[in-house]
Amino acid sequence: MNRRRLLISATLLSYFLLHGMALASGLKLRGNLDLTKTTTLSSSSHRKMLLLSPGGKAEKRVEPERIGDKCKSTDIVVNQAATEPLPSGIPGYTVEITNMCMSGCVISRIHISCGWFSSAKLINPRVFKRIHYDDCLVNNGKPLPYGSTLSFHYANTFPYPLSVAFVTCS
Fold first, then answer.
1. Distance separating alpha carbons of residues 145 and 65, to the nearest angstrom
2. Does pTM top 0.90 for this prediction?
3. Which of 110, 106, 95 is closest to 147 using CA atoms?
4. CA angle 111, 116, 112 (to 5 degrees)
5. Contact in structure between 120 and 155 (CB atoms under 8 Å)
6. pLDDT tens by residue, 97-147
7. Cα 96 from chain centre
8. How far apart are CA 167 and CA 139, in angstroms?
9. What angle do CA 88, 90, 92 make, to 5 degrees?
10. Environment class of 95 (CB within 10 Å of its CB; exposed 0-12, middle 13-18, buried 19+)
11. Could you tell me if residue 56 is left (phi over 0), alpha (psi between -120 and 50 degrees) or otherwise beta?
């Protein structure tokens, strides 16, 4: 029993040392793989740091990713989760796109980076459609008011990485 417990402890310790410490310290594993370049650690708070404007004056500050006076591209949040597969066995996924703008802005022309997005299940093109490679349009380009969520389901053998590429603040 003690030997088994020791083996499990050693395995867990080596896993955490290799994966946890390598990420924190930037160690190189498996040849040329540098985890500091391929993995991002997010230990910061939910707020973005304010950057000094080009003039360098402390009272003039510019927030990154700001679109106009009210909006930021990070105000649009894309969530994705696995759902039940189709009867044919193809995995299903649900996507929710939400306007989280705290200043009550209305965001339109939401473009999502979506690769060669395709689905075995039909998606209403007014809700989400691929225009070109890595460019999908949400809500037919119409505004998504503050607090609103658009959702759709798709089916494919793997989930597509979806992220906000471009938005316009109304």
1. 19
2. no
3. 106
4. 15
5. yes
6. 999 988 888 899 999 999 999 999 999 999 999 999 999 999 999 999 888
7. 11
8. 12
9. 120
10. buried
11. left
